[in-house]
Model the fold of this input.
Amino acid sequence: TTVDVAISLPEAMTASSSHLCKTNTDSLCCDPTSGPIRKFIYRFNHWTGLYMLEPSERLAFHAVVGIFVTSSCLYTLCFVSGFADGWESTNLKA
Done:
């Protein structure tokens, strides 16, 4: 009986693995009729691992990161425009 179990185990694994191949989440969750924005959000959530968070945790994460990115962009814009103004005033004096 031990030999029968050892032989039937790989057959059972093969049968279940062929069944699992039909459950590709990309084709189930991201069908061809969905738009490019929905596909981007789906891929972004999987790439970053945000799909594991609850919706409220995801919202909090995006709020914190959004504030950080927005303030970084504004600070960079302020720095670059100040640098350009200083560059122009230096060239005008010369």
Confidence is low (pLDDT under 50) at residues 3-9.
